[in-house]
Design goal:
This protein has helices at residues 2-21, 23-29, 31-60, 63-83, 107-110, 139-148, 164-169, 177-180, 208-213, 248-260, 304-314, 324-328, 338-343, 347-356, and strands at residues 90-92, 112-114, 121-125, 130-133, 151-152, 187-193, 199-203, 223-230, 232-233, 237-246, 266-273, 276-285, 318-323. The chain is of the alpha+beta class. Helix 5 (107-110) links the parallel strand 1 (90-92) and strand 2. 29% of the residues are buried. It is found in: Endoplasmic reticulum membrane; Golgi apparatus membrane.
Length: 359
Amino acid sequence: MEPLLYLGSLAVIFLLWIKVKGLDYVIVHQRWIFVCLFLLPLSVLFDVYYYMRAWIIFKMCSAPKKHDQRVRDIQRQVREWKKEGSKTRMCTGRPGWLTVSLRVGKYKKTHKNIMINLMDILEVDTERQVVRVEPLANMGQVTACLNSVGWTLPVLPELDDLTVGGLVMGTGIESSSHIYGLFQHICVAYELVLADGSLVRCTEEENSDLFHAVPWSCGTLGFLVAAEIKIIPAKPWVKLHYEPVRGLENICRRFTEASENKQNAFVEGIQYSENTAVIMTGTMTDHAEPDKVNRIGLHFKPWFFKHVESYLNKDRSGVEYIPLRQYYHRHTRSIFWELQVHTEHTQLLDAFLFFFLTS
Ligand SMILES: Cc1cc2nc3c(=O)[nH]c(=O)nc-3n(C[C@H](O)[C@H](O)[C@H](O)COP(=O)(O)OP(=O)(O)OC[C@H]3O[C@@H](n4cnc5c(N)ncnc54)[C@H](O)[C@@H]3O)c2cc1C
């Protein structure tokens, strides 16, 4: 009974405090309360739902059948818009809070929202070495599916929530881009619903003008409904070499050298001040030296950029073996260093984040 009374009193004091200060003040100045009590638990539930759904659909192979039906629904919405006289412009109906960008697109309120419910991995074709995916499939889903069957995307942008549609229509890059280019450079075909409601496929050979115009077009040419992307064989570990470098010229020189060496499957540099950085180079490997394994994705591990900084602080190079999927999503927990900026001076939030933000 006592703990309940204690919790009840705390809740009353908390509500009184909100009443005195005002909800706006609490949300703006004490946002950790909202983040810890609501946002994080909801995010965890949402992630669990999303991964379970992707896993079940992938295992049961039921998505391709529904794909055509869902695309027809998008065509119907576009044709309706045309029939109604094309009064406003169209945009994807995906709400701003679901995207990675912090910008809230006000145009979503005034434009005709076309609902695109396409979030599945349709087919992994290991003969052609291509995966066919829907535009809302995200990088977390893609690595969960592909890496588990021994394949991966040559360019796999770090954050779990980045979607194929956003990466094609916006932009995407990864520490393997010195070999394979940007995200669009590994795409071999796009399927789009155009403004007249027609469905077109474009590749290097077929409708090639459209194929080359789609990347970075931000949805202005049509709605992406599927993309075919190259895949390459994956190995379970990344052998990562950390090298602290000092002096701007040295940093540029070492980064250029590392990028020019195509033996390096991954090259990344994190700069901590004008004159200090850590350059990382990595290769995929089948085996790991047990004493050098670092499972950076575990919830109790430090944020990746903090871990990298420790090499700079100790002024020593080092080698570690990181599970491939954890390497890809190394910046997901901390969104690079963004979470630190949001949570500075908030020790309680740090503790909560520490607990909740597992990869
Ligand atoms: C905090 C932050 C971290 C980032 N980190 C990385 C990173 O680690 N690596 C990296 O490569 N990039 C990164 N980016 C850039 C990011 O890849 C791009 O901003 C990308 O466009 C975001 O994709 P999204 O899935 O959030 O898509 P959205 O923001 O929803 O879409 C991006 C654009 O594509 C259009 N679009 C989306 N789907 C469709 C569709 N089906 N049909 C037509 N048009 C469509 C949208 O209208 C919009 O114009 C980051 C961006 C931010 C804000």
